[in-house]
Amino acid sequence: MSITKNIAKPLLSFLVLLILSTPQVFSQTYDLNNSASKLTISGTSSLHDWDIDVEQQKGQIVLNMANELKIEKLTLDVIAESLKSGKGGMDKNTYKALNTNKHKSIAFQLTDVKEIKASGTDSYKVEVAGNLTVAGVTKKTSLHLDMLVTSNKVTLKGNKSFKMTDFGIKPPKALFGTITTGDDITITFDTILNK
């Protein structure tokens, strides 16, 4: 009798532990691979169109694959002074406009998943909403993403257009105001996250 009791107690504890930990098995965390990811900000000016690439970004996505694919978490953080155009003067004007002395990063934080729709093998069309913070101003924004999920990698592709003035940013000027930057910008991203 005591042998049965001795076996039953650890077995019961193990089963309870297994039941409690099972949901965790389905959540998978993927971290942004900075060297493999690309994020470009594009805009216009009175002289020519321009692009600025992001050199330092980090982020994370947590997917739950229990019954159907769910996004539990999605974050992106860009170091503001890692925006590089290849032109020192333009970069300086960008940092001034973003007030990088005070606001060190540009960030996106998921608040709501509106739709996840399968579009092929391991491919999904996704619409999410979240808080985008630029130059210290936070706005609710939605993103449409193409998402590819494999066992050890998630790829997110998409773009988002908005106005600098939406975030209280005065479009930069150069050469004593003779060159003016357009208010509209587009962010294009090809983000790789690895397990």
Automatic annotation (TrEMBL):
A Pfam family it matches: YceI
Q: Which residues form the Lipid/polyisoprenoid-binding YceI-like domain?
A: 29-194
Q: Source organism's superkingdom? A: Bacteria
Q: Name the InterPro entries for this protein.
A: Lipid/polyisoprenoid-bd_YceI, TTHA0802/YceI-like_sf
Q: Which UniProt keywords apply?
A: Signal
- Specify the signal sequence span: 1-27
Please state what the protein is called.
YceI-like domain-containing protein
User: From which lineage does this chain's organism come?
Assistant: Bacteria, Pseudomonadati, Bacteroidota, Flavobacteriia, Flavobacteriales
